[in-house]
């Protein structure tokens, strides 16, 4: 409960107050909280599944069951954590409504659960891929935290995608080719009616998610046959 609030306050002070990033008619704190709430679900899924073989080596070595159940259960159980943080967002949303902010919902909010499912599948696919690599390169797990922090700045969590296109057009392609950026931007549009929905971007995100999931699943199933010898 504290982590998304503390992060939102920090982003508001640094990026909105000091750096001067504008969020239009949406309060910067609520803008950041919406992005961070969705982003936290992805990071929880990725970090939880990326250490599957290393963490569960003792169980995997004694009892046989479909190994895919373990990372899948992590993705599903993290929905509880996401639900708690999303409830916090709803409370602040109601608070800002009573404060006189013009906050409106649109019909696209009905597709928000599908967006979260895509986020979870993307985290699952990347997590299975990374967990397979960790069995051979154990130090790789130490780079995950740093990589996630860097990826957050490239995923439009604390700024609108339109801003990076206007301010840094030469580097805007990095964000545009990041499927996570479209999920964050779309989620803010659904929750705050702010920003835009890129149908082409969502199609690209869905394609990347499916590809990464099946690649991760293929490598994960291949690794489970011999991982006990390397972990």
Helix-strand layout with pairing:
Blueprint: H1 2-18, H2 28-49, H3 52-55, H4 57-60, H5 69-98, H6 112-134, H7 142-153, H8 161-167, H9 172-176, H10 179-192, H11 199-223
Describe the structure concisely.
This protein has 231 residues and is mostly helical. The protein contains eleven helices and no strands.
What attributes characterize this protein structure?
231 residues; mainly alpha; 11 helices
Structure characterization notes:
The structure is a single chain. The mean pLDDT is 84. The longest helix is centred in the middle third of the chain and has 30 residues, at 69-98. Helix 5 (69-98) packs across helix 6 (112-134). The chain contains eleven helices and no strands. Helix content is 71%, strand content 0%. With 231 residues, the chain is mainly alpha-helical.
Radius of gyration: 19 Å
Query: Oligomeric state of the chains?
Result: single chain
- Span from first to last CA? 34 Å
H/E element order: HHHHHHHHHHH
Tell me about the largest β-sheet. Answer: none
Helix content: over 70%
Residues in β-strands, percent: under 5%
Q: How many E strands? A: 0
Overall residue-averaged pLDDT value: 84
Structural class: mainly alpha
Shape: globular
User: Please, how many helices?
Assistant: 11
Uncertain segments are: none
């Amino acid at each position: 409960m504290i982590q998304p609030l503390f992060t939102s306050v920090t982003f508001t002070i640094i990026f909105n107050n000091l750096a001067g990033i504008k969020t239009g008619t949406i309060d910067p704190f609520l803008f950041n909280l919406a992005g961070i709430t969705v982003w936290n679900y992805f990071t929880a899924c990725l970090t939880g599944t990326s250490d599957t073989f290393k963490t569960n080596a003792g169980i995997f070595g004694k009892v046989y069951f479909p190994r895919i159940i373990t990372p899948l259960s992590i993705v599903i159980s993290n929905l509880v954590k996401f639900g708690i943080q999303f409830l916090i967002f709803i409370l602040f949303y109601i608070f800002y409504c009573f404060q006189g902010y013009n906050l409106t919902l649109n019909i696209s909010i009905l597709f928000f659960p599908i967006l979260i499912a895509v986020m979870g599948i993307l985290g699952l696919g990347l997590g299975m891929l990374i967990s397979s690599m960790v069995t051979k390169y154990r130090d790789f797990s130490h780079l995950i935290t740093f990589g996630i922090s860097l990826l957050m700045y490239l995923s439009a969590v604390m700024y609108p995608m339109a801003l990076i296109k206007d301010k840094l057009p030469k580097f805007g392609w990095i964000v545009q080719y990041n499927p996570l950026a479209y999920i964050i931007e779309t989620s803010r549009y659904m929750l705050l009616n702010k920003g835009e929905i890129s149908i082409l971007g969502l199609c690209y995100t869905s394609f990347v998610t499916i590809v990464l999931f099946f690649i991760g699943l293929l490598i994960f199933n291949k690794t489970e046959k011999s991982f006990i010898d390397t972990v």
